[in-house]
């Protein structure tokens, strides 16, 4: 039987990549979280079979998620439910409701409050004659279906790095064509690792969720994990330390140097100040280690980010470790499993628009 052709997610914009990264860190719905990780791994060039092995799902599941995302975008990450009686409010009215919800009361001459509550919005819709009666819950469902949600205002950052394109292409070149006699390693910190109940998802009888204790104290301090992803094998190496100063980072680099003697190490890392400490730079120059720094606000270019998302999902979510030794053991067990199933990392975001950038876009879609 012929092998199925590989399927990859469509080219993602930088903002879409950031949004996926946020979903993998904060999504509460397990279906949405799992689908987001699949899409993120596919966007980084991992094949359906590699994702299947790491996520423990079927090839067909991976392909269906990728196809659905290519067709419907981020809507495909949300589970869809069907059924119920026919809609009482037509599509045009629903669209109008969603548009009005995105306005402010002041735009309608209402100065008593600055934002809509569901009750105030429903009353306003009735006052202008758009609907005759509308419950708060029905309004909530209309807004959710229309992609309008209650959100905190936020800020966004674009990179102010004048050498963004040069640094980005230097990283992509190392991903695409590792130098002869060299090894490309992606390094980053993961944490902080404190002792606390971590929300997660698990299979339980309907209406009887697993319970975790509520805590307010954070005893026994925190730990920090320094992780390294070897692109040649896909394996992860790590250390857990009490702090993450330049001394801990340098010690970690020395352990990587000892692991691959005789090879030039190209270490990709972000602009965290301990990475640029003079002692670290001096040692790296003297020991054939090339520190390759990501552009400012360009941590999404670090290949280890998707691996950290999977580590958080599989090893920490839903746990309540009472000691750091217990938590460290759980992390170690996951990484052993990961390394047993690891494959070389190739084709990072091969079809992404970032490949054609000649300058940093003035506005990110």
From TrEMBL:
Tell me the superkingdom of the source: Bacteria
Protein name per UniProt: Transposase
Specify the species.
Actinocorallia herbida
Instruction: List the signal peptide residues.
Output: none
Q: Which GO terms describe its molecular function?
A: nucleic acid binding
Q: Where is the Tc1-like transposase DDE domain?
A: 183-324
Which one Pfam family would you cite for this protein? HTH_32
Q: Which InterPro entries match?
A: Homeodomain-like_sf, RNaseH-like_sf, RNaseH_sf, Tc1-like_DDE_dom, Transpos_IS630-like
